[in-house]
Design brief:
This protein has about 425 residues and is an alpha+beta fold. About 40% of the residues lie in helices and about 20% in strands. It has 3 domains: about 5-90, no CATH class; about 90-145 and about 375-425, no CATH class; about 155-370.
Length: about 425
């Protein structure tokens, strides 16, 4: 894949500084970002600072890793002076997600909605290729979608990006109200023979007990808890099996430090976990609370900082175990056990929400709610150009040959070639 160049306006790093991203034709386009999620990356080795609004990690040498906020994918950039060169474009990420969705379809049982996602036409609708003038991205319209954040790499990327924006909005609103926002990570002891469905059931029961009864009322009062946003993540390790854990944002009206909140939370979490039939969480590692600058870095790190940690567990690479995406990739490379593990993961997570907001928190922070189905069904851009209409026979040929991403690549770079390609496909 050819490298794409993007010239970055270093400016003074003010909220109004412009940024340039690669356009679909290989050129650049500018945008003026809001203050949310902005970050500065101090270049290593004497490199000047470069404005990267969705920075994930500090530069390694002259490389930075960032989130493409428009596609939900992790991108890699080489920095030299005032110049950024993208090492991994959005099309490569899109092709990978489409390929992994093919793998997921093969592993899931008949009747699972992901098997029809991006494959079947919606009733009484044409299959269209549309392009967003603002985003310079092409996409299909008129296909069924599964809206599964667990099973589908394609839908998960879109859902996660929207959820990340919601969480970031909540953090900003909370700060405006004078609330503190901390990140808590809760884990439990686990072993190779543990069943993931049973672990999930008991962990949710333990969480529910945190807030129940007079004990829960006293707990909330001690830490000044006004609400929370909770997410569930899981990895699989060869030595210790399934490792489910909670990440939650705590919206607090308190002067307690993260360490003081952790002490209170650890005691309560240990008690509730045991009551739910789980092993006693580790006194030091079973509960971790972070806040302040650490929380801000989580928010800005981006796919997969706080918002990102909550919303992109399915897409992240596991630190000590394999994430669901890595299980799909390993199966694609011949690991049959990884395929069976992915199918078991999807079965266990079916019907669970990716993100849970405590009652009243959306109203307190004035953050609107969209369902996963509404997010996925929403066009990438309300104002898009129609580039092509695909007949059923043409779509069957494109789908069977797994050329969906090829069509979109052509639509972004050469619409005439895209139309010619569609007309030339053989059923």
């Amino acid at each position: 894949m050819a490298l794409q160049d993007a010239h970055i306006n270093i400016g003074d790093h003010s909220p109004k500084v412009a940024r340039a991203w690669p356009a679909g034709d290989g050129g650049t386009r500018s945008a003026t970002p809001a203050t949310t999620g902005q970050a500065q990356a101090a270049g290593a080795g004497g490199l000047p600072s470069v404005y990267t609004p969705e920075l994930i990690h500090p530069p390694h040498g002259n490389h930075v890793q960032a989130l493409d906020a428009e596609t939900g994918e992790v991108t890699f950039w080489q920095v030299s002076g005032t110049r950024q060169r993208q090492l991994k474009g959005h099309r490569e990420g899109r092709a990978k997600r489409y390929a992994l969705r093919w793998i997921a379809r093969r592993l899931l049982p008949k009747g699972h909605k992901t098997r029809k996602c991006g494959a079947w036409r919606l009733p009484n609708m044409d299959i269209q290729v549309l392009k967003s003038p603002a985003l310079q991205r092409a996409y299909f319209h008129g296909l069924q979608v599964c809206a599964s954040p667990w099973a589908c790499p394609v839908c998960a990327a879109k859902i996660s990006e929207r959820r990340t924006a919601e969480v970031q909005e909540a953090i900003d609103r909370a700060k405006a109200l004078g609330l503190s926002v901390y990140l808590v990570t809760l884990t439990i002891p686990h072993g190779l023979g543990d069943d993931i469905a049973d672990l999930l059931h008991r962990m949710h029961a333990a969480w529910a007990k945190l807030n129940q009864g007079k004990g829960g009322e006293k707990f909330r009062a001690r830490i000044g808890l006004r609400g929370h946003i909770r997410a569930l993540e899981v990895t699989y390790g060869q030595l210790h099996g399934w490792h489910p854990h909670f990440h939650a944002l705590l919206f607090l009206d308190t002067e307690l430090t993260p360490g003081q909140v952790q002490q209170v939370f650890t005691e309560r979490w240990q008690r509730c976990a045991v009551r739910a039939g789980l092993p006693l969480p580790h006194a030091e590692f079973g509960c971790q609370v972070d806040g302040g600058d650490h929380a801000e870095r989580y928010v800005s790190k981006g796919g997969w900082g706080l918002a990102e940690e909550l919303t992109k567990g399915q897409a992240k690479d596991g630190r000590k175990g394999r994430s669901p995406r890595q299980l799909l990739e390993d199966y694609q490379n011949g690991d049959k056990q990884a395929g069976a593990l992915f199918a078991r993961y999807v079965e266990a997570f079916h019907g669970r929400r990716q993100l849970y907001w405590s009652n009243g928190l959306r109203a307190l922070l004035s953050v609107a709610e969209l369902t996963d189905e509404e997010i996925v069904a929403k066009p990438d851009d309300e104002v898009s150009m129609l580039l092509a209409t695909i007949t059923d026979d043409q779509w069957k040929a494109i789908y069977r040959k797994r050329q969906e991403s090829v069509v979109l690549d052509l639509a972004e770079t050469d619409p005439d070639a895209c139309r010619a390609f569609i007309q030339g496909v053989e059923p």
